[in-house]
Specification:
The complex is a heterodimer.
Chain A lengths: L1 H24 L21 E5 L5 E6 L5 E8 L13 H11 L7 H10 L3 E6 L4 E8 L3 H13 L5 H16 L5 H14 L11 H5 L3 H11 L5 E7 L3 H12 L22 E6 L5 E9 L1 E2 L5 H23 L6 E5 L1 E2 L5 E9 L3 H17 L4 H13 L8 H13 L6 H10 L3 H11 L6 E6 L14 E3 L10
Parallel strand pairs in A: 2-6, 7-13, 7-14, 9-11
Antiparallel strand pairs in A: 1-2, 3-5, 3-6, 4-5, 8-12, 8-13, 10-12
Helix pairs in contact in A: 2-5, 2-8, 4-9, 10-11, 10-12, 10-14, 10-15, 11-15
Chain B lengths: L6 H30 L1 E4 L5 E6 L5 E8 L13 H8 L12 H22 L6 H20 L5 H8 L6 E4 L4 E8 L3 H13 L6 H17 L2 H13 L13 H4 L4 H11 L5 E7 L3 H12 L22 E7 L4 E8 L6 H13 L5 H9 L3 E10 L6 E9 L5 H18 L3 H19 L2 H15 L4 H10 L3 H11 L5 E8 L2
Parallel strand pairs in B: 2-6, 7-11
Antiparallel strand pairs in B: 1-2, 3-5, 3-6, 4-5, 8-10, 8-11, 9-10
Classes of the chains: A alpha/beta, B alpha+beta.
């Protein structure tokens, strides 16, 4: 109630202010040169930190604008830690944790209860983290929290929901070659990290079949405990009350033995290859070329961000899309990962008849940004763009809080974004050239084309020996 | 605590109380926001709708042009979307080194193109003449390119920190968006009004190539893209929802620069444009600046509304797309446009039938019968300014067929027609609607889009809020009625992907 009054008061105040200003600037003529006044200051939310006796870490932000509460949590785990004979285990665990319900309420009962409240509680396990999301109207928060606490402390993992999740995973396997973009990005990833690498391997019918209920319970127990979990909550509450609620609901969650996660090593392919996947039923090729990228912690990241913008937009987009009309979507980007190296990749989808031509242009553009400094204009545009859009990193309290939780999870300073900005301000043309030379390796790229060979402009072999990738799905055992 | 324990009468009371208590809190929120929205119409008919939100020093800009692929006719399918691309090519001062010289070359280029096309389309083209004309065209295209400043509009916007510069075209509308630091308000006014006052459709022929690639990407290489195109073509035999927004390939290869100029003149008059601005701005300042910059656009007649209406269907229609893909099933039933009150009941039915893990289709097809990996229902397909489709789709589970999914879907539809939905389900829908509306309010870009949509398609921006009240008033009987009225065999189209070996 008081909230509405305040906002109306603010509104009335603004009208008055606008009226006074309006009188000052009156009618004026259109301008074509602009000097921008200062922006209103960014509002940093007040982030409260707390830790429960069982080690559960909390970040809280009071945000009373609307009557809702959201919770986001990260659990230190990941699919990269599942055994190679049971690929899919982490995904399955993340799904069945929620769909399987608890020993006192079934997953279906939870579905119904949450849907009726227009609330959601979801869980999942990705490659490098487990995630929990709760979104609920303020007055239903206690109910959603009770469900979440129940799931975390007493999950049931019933066989029927595991079987159902297995059906879904088998369906995904059976459909993985239906979409040509999905084929290209998946197979490119396997080229870069190696097809058996935890960062690129994929579930097969056999690895899904091998997973048992006990595997899920063991995987869950190995990682899901409070001192392995960080929680961010924002919305219409008082921080003190929220800590009390979370203590009451999750205080009983038993502490486990937290250890640093042994992230698997990445082995760089370090070779030039040309790869092809035959899709005689399409009239457009899907092309990706690239090699291993780097880490976000690299001191060169700011210069690489600027180089990326220039390579992707100034060079690839303007050249391949605008000048040549060869592709709708085209990019070139050196990606950095939080804890393992990302990929450097350039890609486009172009009609079969311009496949090799497009690859040649991409390689030429990579070489060009390594051979000579970018222009003053290109540098200024890229830096201005980065710095002027910096404010969008602070658009909402939720965005800021989620970012902080993610940084904390991967061991980055909470003000990483602010630090990057300071460094980007100092980037020079020489820096861009230096990082391009240091990190881009056109002689060690892996090239992948997915498409209809018969219609290519030139044989792919003009680029080197062609390795044909077989994407046939290994059949399930009868 | 499970609501079921209260017994049926008790349950209804508890649920009614839930909706009520929640409605009061949210109603106040919606009212407060609604009161802050203001609208201003320029003398030339262009409308500006503003909502102040001072969370962060940014502002979302949304231009809603009331023209989409439904306004197209044979020969120019895809032109709304082509025009959207061309609107990024600059103006008489942006994107060119010397407009006077450039415009002469552009005229020559168009003439050369016309000659080339004329020869090319003859039954027996003179190959030597054609080659000469093609060479001339290429030469002029290169000459024109010399005057171009590549992507200068994008450059300007990105450089000023635009985090959302983009546009999209649908069957109903073409929408241009920017998301800028809020001290760029007047800059946006200047650059954007120039876009609508002095557009120059340069680099046209190359952009047409880009759009052909976009069609290959979205339709021709995607089994589901192919299904969608054939499905809509069957479901709409007369109304222009018949063709996809991207257009037919042969039209994309033949549309001329003059076609685009004509289309712009017809549909981009100020009375066909509505702007939404949401963020850290002052409403009065926005209106004053709109007067200064956008009043310069001369007024023109409102384009004639789409003439063709979809007639009643004479029987069930079926479409099969053969593709290297697993099966996929799509059903569509003809339903009225968004302004019709039945649309709210249809939204409710879509939600109860096929949105969320406790929905009827998910429960029956995915959890119980295990014939699908996913099953959903949706209303307003492919768009909703005109009568459209209520859709149901199923992704078959490995080893299951589209026929098995269809049988299970029909069973669930019959249940709704016979027994209506439960109060519990209806409450779920109402609360979901209110919660997602609250979610929308948090986003500058979503609100800018919503307010312009409501004003153009529903006739008043305030309808964005009224619709919530209409939904609160829905009864189970309303849903049963629309189910029986629209979900009939003769009113539907069935499409499926048939796996090709």
């Amino acid at each position: 109630m008081s909230k509405q009054r305040t906002s109306q008061k603010v509104f009335a105040g603004l009208i008055l202010l606008a009226f006074l200003m309006g009188a000052a600037f009156a009618q004026k003529a259109p301008k074509d040169k602009f000097v921008f006044g200062p922006l209103n200051p960014i509002k940093m939310p007040k982030v409260e930190k707390a830790e429960l006796p069982n080690g559960l870490k909390l970040l809280l932000v009071e945000d009373p604008e609307f009557p809702t509460i959201n919770l986001f949590a990260l659990v230190r785990t990941g699919a990269v830690f599942e055994p190679s004979a049971k690929i899919g285990l982490a995904n399955l665990t993340g799904m069945a944790l929620r769909t399987g319900g608890t020993k006192t309420r079934t997953g279906d009962q939870i579905d119904k209860e949450l849907d009726t409240l227009a609330a959601s509680v979801s869980t999942g396990i990705g490659q490098t983290s487990g995630t929990i999301n709760v979104s609920v109207l303020k007055e239903d928060f206690d109910k959603a929290l009770a469900i979440l606490a129940d799931l975390l402390t007493d999950p049931a993992f019933p066989q029927d929901k595991i079987d159902l999740a297995k059906i879904q995973m088998r369906t995904m396997i059976s459909r993985r070659n239906d979409n040509v973009n999905a084929i290209a990005s998946r197979e490119f990833n396997r080229l870069i990290y190696g097809k058996d690498s935890p960062y690129a391997r994929q579930a097969e019918y056999a690895t899904i079949e091998a997973i048992t209920r006990q595997d899920l319970a063991d995987f869950f127990n190995a990682y899901y405990f409070p001192n392995n979990t960080s929680v961010a909550v924002w919305g219409d509450f008082k921080a003190k009350d929220m800590v009390a609620k979370l203590t009451a609901a999750l205080g009983k969650w038993k502490k486990g033995k937290a250890a640093a996660l042994p992230w698997p090593k990445v082995v760089e392919a370090d070779k030039y290859t040309v790869n092809f996947i035959d899709k005689p039923d399409v009239n457009q090729s899907n092309i990706i070329i690239g090699h291993l990228g780097g880490l976000m912690s690299s001191p060169d990241l700011p210069a690489l961000s600027i180089m990326n913008q220039i390579l992707s937009f100034e060079r690839m987009f303007k050249r391949i899309r605008t000048d040549e009309g060869l592709a709708y979507s085209v990019w070139g980007s050196y990606d950095a990962g939080y804890i393992y190296p990302g990929t450097f990749s350039c890609g486009a989808q172009t009609k079969s008849q311009s496949t090799v031509f497009a690859i040649e242009i991409m390689l030429k553009e990579i070489r060009r940004i390594m051979d000579q400094e970018v222009s003053d204009e290109e540098l200024a545009k890229a830096k201005d763009g980065y710095l002027n859009s910096y404010v969008f990193n602070f658009e909402s309290k939720a965005q800021i809080l989620n970012r902080m939780l993610t940084y904390a999870y991967f061991g980055y300073p909470l003000d990483f974004t602010e630090k990057q900005k300071a460094a980007v301000e100092k980037v020079t043309k020489a820096d861009v050239l230096r990082v391009a030379k240091k990190y881009l390796k056109p002689d060690k790229v892996q090239i992948l084309a997915v498409g209809k060979k018969a219609d290519f402009d030139k044989p792919l072999s003009t680029l080197g020996n062609v390795n044909v990738i077989d994407i046939a799905i290994p059949p399930a055992k009868k | 605590m499970k609501p079921r324990k209260h017994g049926l009468a008790g349950l209804v009371c508890v649920l009614a109380a839930l909706v009520l208590s929640f409605s009061t809190a949210s109603a106040q929120t919606f009212d407060a926001v609604r009161k802050q929205v203001r609208i201003h119409t320029l003398p030339n008919g262009m409308k500006f709708i503003v909502l102040e939100r001072h969370d962060a020093p940014v502002a979302a800009f949304h231009i809603y042009a009331d023209v989409g692929s439904a306004n197209e006719s044979y020969g120019i399918t895809g032109i709304s979307h082509i025009l959207e691309h061309m609107a990024f090519k600059g103006t008489k001062t942006v994107g060119t080194k010397d407009f006077t010289a450039e415009s002469k070359v552009l005229a020559d280029l168009d003439a050369a193109y016309a000659q080339m096309r004329e020869e090319e389309t003859k039954i027996a083209p003179d190959q030597a003449r054609l080659a000469a004309l093609q060479a001339k065209f290429k030469d002029l295209e290169a000459k024109a390119k010399d005057y171009v400043v590549n992507n200068e509009y994008f450059d300007m916007m990105l450089r000023e920190g635009d985090a959302g510069v983009n546009a999209y075209t649908s069957n109903d509308a073409t929408q241009y968006i920017n998301y800028l630091p809020s001290n760029r308000l007047e800059f946006w006014m200047a650059v954007t009004s120039d876009r609508f006052l002095n557009p120059v459709f340069r680099e046209f022929y190359k952009e047409r190539d880009v759009i052909q690639e976009e069609r290959r990407l979205g339709v021709e290489t995607q089994p589901t893209g192919k299904l969608m195109e054939d499905f809509l073509a069957a479901a709409f035999k007369a109304h222009p929802y018949h063709h996809e927004v991207i257009g037919h390939m042969s039209d994309l290869q033949s549309i001329t620069r003059q076609d685009v100029e004509d289309y712009f003149k017809k549909f981009y008059g100020p009375s066909n444009l509505t702007v939404g601005i949401v963020g850290d701005v002052k409403t009065d300042e926005v209106f004053k600046l709109a007067d200064v910059y956008f009043s310069r656009i001369p007024s023109g007649p409102r384009p004639e509304p789409v003439r063709t209406k979809e007639p009643d269907q004479w029987g069930e229609r079926k479409v099969a797309v053969s593709a290297k893909s697993q099966p996929y099933l799509l059903l569509g039933y003809h339903v009225p446009d968004a302004r019709n009150k039945d649309s709210r009941a249809l939204e409710a039915m879509a939600n109860i039938l096929g949105q969320g893990r406790s929905s009827r289709l998910y429960t029956a097809l995915v959890k119980e019968k295990k014939v699908a990996a996913m099953a959903q229902a949706f209303s307003g397909f492919p768009s909703d300014k005109f009568p459209n489709l209520f859709g149901v789709m199923a992704v078959t589970a490995a080893g299951k067929t589209a026929a098995e999914c269809q049988a299970a879907i029909e069973e669930e539809i019959e249940k709704i027609k016979k027994d209506a939905v439960t109060d519990e389900e209806l409450t779920k829908f109402k609360r979901t609607t209110i919660k997602s509306a609250l979610g929308q309010l948090r986003s500058n870009t979503n609100m800018a889009a919503l307010l312009t949509y409501a004003d153009v398609v529903l006739g008043d921006y305030g309808k964005a809020f009224d619709q919530i009240d209409e939904i609160k008033a829905l009864t189970a009987e309303d849903i049963k009625r629309v189910a029986n009225r629209y979900l009939t065999k003769n009113n539907r189209t069935i499409g499926e992907i048939v796996p090709e070996k």
